[in-house]
Automatic annotation (TrEMBL):
EC number: 1.2.1.12
One Pfam family recorded for the sequence: Gp_dh_C
Location of the Glyceraldehyde 3-phosphate dehydrogenase catalytic domain: 1-139
Segments passing through the bilayer: none
UniProt cross-references to SUPFAM superfamilies, sorted A to Z: Glyceraldehyde-3-phosphate dehydrogenase-like, C-terminal domain
Protein name, per record: Glyceraldehyde-3-phosphate dehydrogenase 1
Molecular function GO terms recorded: glyceraldehyde-3-phosphate dehydrogenase (NAD+) (phosphorylating) activity
Matches recorded under InterPro entries: GlycerAld/Erythrose_P_DH (IPR020831), GlycerAld_3-P_DH_cat (IPR020829)
Coiled coil location: none
CDD domains tied to this protein: GAPDH_I_C
Membership in a protein family: Belongs to the glyceraldehyde-3-phosphate dehydrogenase family.
Length: 161
């Protein structure tokens, strides 16, 4: 998993000393390879993925919206069309409001303010053979997260916790 991530407020606008040299470089002028906690966080929520997911991040000079570039090896053979259909079904069903299916050829700025946690881009799905699939999914790293926090607060309120 590679997250191509908008730079964050803890990054410097100019080159500055940092214990990790590349993280001290000017955020608005550089593509900065770094670690991500996303893979670990996913395996904590979905224990069945523990040890099966790893990743890194590229911080890029955009102020908002990031994209996940995910390559998976499937247990069963599947075509690009089958994978895209499954994602479309999930977006309309069990993940409605969390996952969006966006067939248009859009760019990062088109997703600023989008409340979904993931906006799947089917036109970028690729296959290598019948078991290795590459997926692309956008997200507004601030707005999507904020909306999931609101969902959690509503859940807690409804449960009376």
């Amino acid at each position: 998993m590679n997250t191509i991530h908008a730079y964050t407020n803890d990054q410097k606008t100019l080159d500055f000393p940092h214990k990790n040299y590349s993280r001290g470089r000017a955020a608005a002028l550089s593509i900065i390879p770094t670690s991500t906690g996303a893979a670990k966080a996913i395996s904590e929520v979905m224990p069945e993925l523990k040890g099966k997911l790893n990743g890194f991040a590229l911080r890029v000079p955009t102020p908002d919206v990031s994209v996940v570039d995910l390559t998976v090896v499937l247990e069963k053979p599947a075509t690009v069309d089958e994978v895209n259909a499954a994602m479309k079904e999930a977006a309309a069903g069990s993940l409605k409001g969390i996952l969006e299916y966006e067939p248009e050829d859009l760019v990062s700025m088109d997703f600023v303010g989008d409340t979904h946690s993931s906006i799947f881009a089917p036109m970028h799905t690729m296959a290598m053979g019948d078991r290795m699939i590459k997926l692309l999914s956008w997200y507004d790293n601030e707005c999507g997260y904020s909306n999931r926090v609101i969902d959690l607060a509503n859940y807690i309120f409804k449960k009376g916790l």
